[in-house]
């Protein structure tokens, strides 16, 4: 819970004046929400926590699973998400889930790049 300075009620937190804050400077501070008074007024600026992006927490391992390798092999063969889902007898959402994990683990942003990177690494 954030501490509101004395003299400021809860309604004062809703009337916030904006202040430009250097992001690099705010990363150095504690990883909790904090309140910083604005110099121009008696209002308060609430700065959010700069946590780890969700994407970086998806997988702890950079090794592709057997299911991901199979999806990657079918993608290399030019199959669509729907075709891979029919071949593997899973939903299209499951195939998309595996593809997103593959992109993250290989550090790429699309299917063509993932297939090329996998070929370069000798995975498929």
UniProtKB/TrEMBL annotation:
CDD domains: LuxR_C_like
Gene Ontology BP terms: regulation of DNA-templated transcription
Stretches assigned to the HTH luxR-type domain: 57-122
Keyword Transcription regulation: yes
InterPro entries, sorted: Sig_transdc_resp-reg_C-effctor, Tscrpt_reg_LuxR_C, WH-like_DNA-bd_sf
Pfam families in alphabetical order: GerE
UniProt entry keywords in alphabetical sequence: DNA-binding, Transcription, Transcription regulation
Keyword RNA-binding: no
Molecular-function annotations in GO: DNA binding
Protein name per its UniProtKB record: Transcriptional regulator, LuxR family
Species whose genome carries this gene: Pseudomonas batumici
Taxonomic placement: Bacteria, Pseudomonadati, Pseudomonadota, Gammaproteobacteria, Pseudomonadales
